[in-house]
Amino acid sequence: MFRDRGRWKVKLGRAGSGVFRAAPVEGGPRVEVLVAGENLSAARVVLPPGGGMPEHDHGESEAMVVVRSGRVLMRSGDQEEELEAGAVALIGVGERVALRNASQEEAHLLAVFSPPGFVRNLEAWPEAG
Question: Where is the Cupin type-2 domain positioned along the sequence (predicted)?
């Protein structure tokens, strides 16, 4: 939920106050767009245990992914890295990556996109049940 502060050029969002959307893949993540602006957007991503996202790119957007909890395997081409809480990955425009939750608990990520075009794709996903 965003609060309108009139002329104040700050958009505020809060995790848990928006709509969770489900990736259209088996075992895929749930995503909640936290805030979206003209040049930047942020989303909360929750990967189920053993779940993930197959290889994909972020269109015109550069992406920064921060692992907030859990362990995530990120693969790009023939390279794979295990990312733990506190890890930050910067994914360039056009770079194809796959994600997989390597733990038995949900993995929580913060994803930031610039420009925010990729968020339009996320907002088109169906609401999570």
Answer: 44-113
Determine the CATH number of domain 20-123.
2.60.120.10
Secondary structure class of 72 (helix, strand, coil): strand
Q: pLDDT for 69-122, tens place per residue?
A: 999 999 999 999 999 999 999 999 999 999 999 999 999 999 999 998 898 888
Mean pLDDT of the chain: 90
**Cα separation of 127 and 82, whole Å?**
29
Q: How many CB atoms lie within 10 A of CB 13?
A: 19
Domain segments of the chain: what residues?
20-123
Record the tokens describing residue 100, joined without a space: 């997989």
Strand ranges in 1-129 using DSSP code E only, listed in sequence order: 20-22, 30-36, 41-47, 52-56, 62-69, 71-76, 79-84, 88-91, 97-101, 107-114
The answer to pTM > 0.85 is: yes
pLDDT of residue 88: 98
Nearest-Å Rg of the Cα atoms of the chain is 14
